[in-house]
């Protein structure tokens, strides 16, 4: 067995030489589930190429940096291959370089009571309310 990586074959017609629409590329690289979602993301201003917000018809080139806003965080992708058609995930993964920094991990304390310990006392309930950010003296 050799340590040589396997060559990835891209289907005929999947490569484009002059440039690919950004919405098509986002869909083909499996960043978004449908092309209409990719188009809507571009219209909403959640897609930037090289630091500028672009329309869905913007032509991508190899070497461009694409920022896609997903769930409040930016995904930063470097364009390596231009895909026109949707391919399998392992093949699509070779079309971009993921430069996204790791998301910050937030630890939220959770109150845990022993099972079978009954209802909380008034003091325990106030402590739970304080932990959750409620003022137990306010009336709702």
From TrEMBL:
Q: Where is the composition biased (Basic and acidic residues)?
A: 124-140
Q: Keywords in UniProt for this one? A: RNA-binding
The RNA-binding S4 domain covers which part of the protein? 20-77
- In Gene Ontology terms, what is one molecular function of this protein? RNA binding
Looking at the record, which segments are called Disordered? 113-140
Q: What is this protein called?
A: RNA-binding S4 domain-containing protein
Q: Can you tell me which residues the record assigns to a coiled coil?
A: none
Show the PROSITE patterns listed in the entry.
S4
**What SMART domains does the record tag this protein with?**
S4
One Pfam family linked to the record: S4
């Amino acid at each position: 067995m050799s340590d040589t990586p396997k060559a990835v074959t891209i289907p005929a017609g999947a490569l484009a030489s002059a440039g690919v629409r950004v919405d098509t590329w986002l869909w083909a690289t499996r960043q978004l589930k449908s092309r209409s979602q990719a188009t809507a993301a571009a219209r909403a201003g959640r897609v930037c190429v090289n630091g500028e917000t672009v329309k869905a018809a913007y032509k991508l080139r190899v070497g461009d940096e694409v920022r896609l806003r997903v769930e409040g965080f930016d995904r930063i992708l470097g364009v390596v291959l231009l895909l026109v058609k949707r391919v399998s995930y392992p093949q699509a993964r070779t079309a971009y370089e993921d430069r996204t920094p790791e998301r910050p991990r937030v630890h939220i304390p959770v109150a845990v009571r022993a099972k079978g310990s009954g209802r909380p006392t008034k003091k325990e309930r106030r402590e739970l309310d304080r932990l959750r950010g409620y003022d137990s003296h306010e009336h709702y």
